[in-house]
Write a structure and sequence with these properties.
heterotrimer, A mainly alpha (225), B alpha/beta (239), C mainly alpha (215), A: 225 residues, mainly alpha, 9 helices, C: mainly alpha, globular
């Protein structure tokens, strides 16, 4: 099926370029380390305070990384006018969206795993039983961020003041996802089972479905010439 | 055999903000014919090219390619087009072969390994097929661009200063390739700044000035000086 | 027609003003400052109308590509953001003497603040894109995403504030019962909705004239 092949081609291309240039990955890794240091300096001493703000701080780290990664996702197309090439590609452009989404999701999950790992090691956090639930929440939350983020990144790619406009557009729309993930993470880290945060998980699922469907339907419009 | 022009541009007008870059442009291009579009900087040559490439929509007027309106049926037009613009549409971190395979797949073509090798050989890049494009010169990137276009066998070729930045040998080579595509029936529109040898492949010359086609004539046996004079006469007059 | 609308709006606003000060009773505990509610609540509700219209107009634009629909969406966005901004301001003015604070992160205020920032982003997007056709398209997509986000915002914020945390604030706009409060409120609500429609009509007409002059 040509649609799936095109989406895969885009995803493969993004990951190959990233794997070889490591531009975004390097920036994200460096950024995560920086975050770790800053949090250690400001909160590291007081373990109780740290435990209380950890969910928020963790997701702040995830979101900032997401902004960095998503904001750059279409930058690679600006070199050598590849953007034009994508615009002129025949067929349903939502295949390009899916490919980009898959690539972004993979990149973001890798960085999040890294951040989480760093936090666990350096702040001596016991994930224990929370891990499976946490993985679900992180996956759903990241999908939400990436789904709208990829759409908005396409919209702002060729616009003046792109670096400013992209987070300004993305963050307010993402507040429900942020609330849900932070609250769910908080509960999970306190030892509650996944069932206890079922409503947040359902919200995340609903958000993910809405965002992906709307993006698939409107990506053609965004990528029109 | 039908001599209906493949490309028909009828009274196209394009306004950006408050400025009319194109006022009323009309031009026809037949299959197997190459038209060189000349004009000063900012005359609107690239704008016209982009309208044909379905990258911009005209404010008024219409352009059709093989009977399909570029503004109303871009999806029908795009598979027929080959575009060689300023940017070569290459990803620096992929190899030549990978670039070609990507664009072929995204363009809905079957990207069999053999076809790719043949295409790369056709532009003389078979020895660097697996080298990263980052290491290529401008001429090599242009050639890769052409390989991409040739793989799709377009009916209409839109070229924006294709000879710019190429050395003597590369220019000769490009001329040969473009002649071959003309012979295979493609219609060519070439935007160019120079009056030199590059015009050799053009069957007709058109001068864009004052938002209109100020001159549309067969190139015949005109030499660079003749073209220069003609251009000066018509470009300044309508400016 | 727009002129008549203008006069009607002015009349409604005047009536609303009279009723807010003349007919509505002086609130026992809050005093006269509570009368701001007759402006605050209609402003917020009218802004909701604006954003719903924006979403619908955006959808119409995407389907029909009619610049008139885009004009309505654009104007609705401007008026909506203005009304929300004023609504938040009047709410703060009411809140300071009443609750002792300019702002609080309760469910309703937080939701409205998010709305304000979301649609401010909508206007920013408009302002940043020069090509009117592209601006119309992108803003239509943003308008639809924002509208679909509203229920998500509502639920997430509500759950955030109410689960494991009982509401501890006096709810604004608690008008239960007395008709002498209800009528001024309704009249003002009508007046502000008329004001919204009037603004959108004038603005959309101006935008269309601008677009036609250029083409």
């Amino acid at each position: 099926m040509s649609y799936a092949r095109r989406a895969l081609a885009v995803a493969w291309k993004d990951l190959a370029v990233e794997r070889r240039s490591k531009e975004t990955l390097n920036a994200l890794v460096f950024f995560s380390l920086l975050l770790l240091f800053v949090f250690q300096f400001t909160l590291g001493g007081d373990r109780e305070r740290l435990a209380a703000v950890l969910p928020g701080v963790l997701w702040l780290g995830f979101v900032l990384s997401a902004l960095l990664a998503l904001g750059r996702t279409f930058l690679v197309e600006r070199e050598h006018d590849c953007w034009e090439g994508l615009l002129l590609a025949p067929g349903d452009k939502s295949a390009i969206y899916l490919g980009k989404l898959a690539g972004n999701l993979a990149l973001m999950l890798v960085v999040e795993a890294l951040v989480l790992g760093l936090f666990v090691v350096f702040f001596d956090i016991d994930l224990g039983r929370a891990l499976p639930g946490l993985l679900v929440v992180v996956l759903l939350g990241t999908l939400g961020l990436a789904a709208v983020g990829t759409l908005f990144a396409a919209m702002t790619a060729n616009v003046r003041a792109r670096e400013l406009l992209f987070p300004v557009l993305l963050l307010p729309v993402q507040i429900p996802v942020l609330l849900a993930t932070v609250k769910a993470t908080e509960a999970l880290l306190l030892g509650e089972p996944l069932g206890a945060v079922g409503h947040w998980v359902k919200l995340l699922l609903a958000a993910d479905v809405i965002y992906v469907v709307v993006s698939l339907l409107t990506f053609d419009v965004v990528l029109e010439a | 055999m039908s001599v209906e022009p493949v490309v028909r541009i009828i009274g196209v007008r394009k306004v950006f903000g408050l400025v009319a870059v194109l006022d009323s442009v009309s031009l026809d291009i037949r299959a197997g014919e190459a038209v060189a579009l000349l004009g000063a900087n900012g005359a609107g040559k690239t704008t016209l090219l982009k309208i044909l490439a379905t990258l911009l929509r005209p404010t008024r007027g219409a352009a059709t390619i093989a009977g399909h309106d570029v503004a109303r049926a871009p999806e029908a037009v795009r598979p027929l087009l080959g575009v060689v613009a300023h940017g070569a549409w290459v990803y620096d971190d992929l190899t030549a072969r990978e670039n070609l395979r990507f664009w072929a797949t995204v363009g809905g073509l079957d990207a069999y390994a053999d076809d790719l090798t043949v295409a790369l050989a056709g532009v003389g890049l078979e020895r660097v097929a697996d080298a990263r494009v980052r290491t290529f010169s401008a001429g090599m990137k242009r050639r890769l661009s052409l390989a991409r276009v040739m793989l799709a066998r377009p009916r209409v070729l839109l070229l924006d200063e294709p000879f710019a930045g190429l050395d003597q040998r590369a220019r000769k080579w490009l001329e040969g390739r473009l002649e071959a595509m003309k012979a295979a029936g493609a219609a060519l529109l070439m935007v160019t700044h120079s009056f030199g040898r590059e015009l050799g492949i053009a069957d007709r010359l058109a001068v864009l000035a004052g938002g209109r086609i100020a001159l549309d004539t067969a190139r015949g046996t005109l030499g660079p000086d003749d073209v220069q004079r003609l251009y000066a006469a018509h470009a300044e007059e309508s400016a | 027609m727009v002129k008549t609308l203008g006069w009607l709006t002015a009349a409604a606003l005047a009536a609303g003003l009279v009723m807010a000060f003349g007919v509505a009773p002086r609130e026992v505990t809050q005093g006269n400052v509570q009368r701001i509610m007759y402006v605050h609540v209609p402003l917020i509700l009218a802004s909701y109308v604006a954003f719903v219209v924006l979403a619908v107009a955006s959808l119409v634009y995407l389907v029909r590509r009619d610049p008139a629909a885009d004009g309505v969406a654009h104007a609705s966005g401007e008026v909506g953001v203005m009304f929300v901004g004023l609504g938040i301001a009047t709410g703060s003015i009411w809140g300071k003497p009443t609750w002792g604070t300019w702002w609080t992160w309760d469910a309703r205020l937080t939701s409205v603040a998010i709305l304000f920032v979301m649609y401010l982003g909508y206007l920013l997007l408009r302002g940043t894109i020069d090509d009117p056709e592209r601006a119309a398209r992108y803003c239509a997509v943003l308008g639809i995403v924002a509208a679909l986000d509203i229920p998500l915002v509502h639920f997430s914020v509500y759950w955030w504030r109410t689960l494991h945390q009982p509401p501890s604030l006096m709810k604004p706009g608690g008008f239960t019962g007395s008709s002498s409060i209800l009528w001024p409120l309704l009249v003002n609500l009508l007046a502000f909705i008329l004001l919204y429609v009037y603004f959108v009509a004038r603005r959309a007409r101006l935008l269309r004239a601008q677009a036609e002059a250029i083409a």
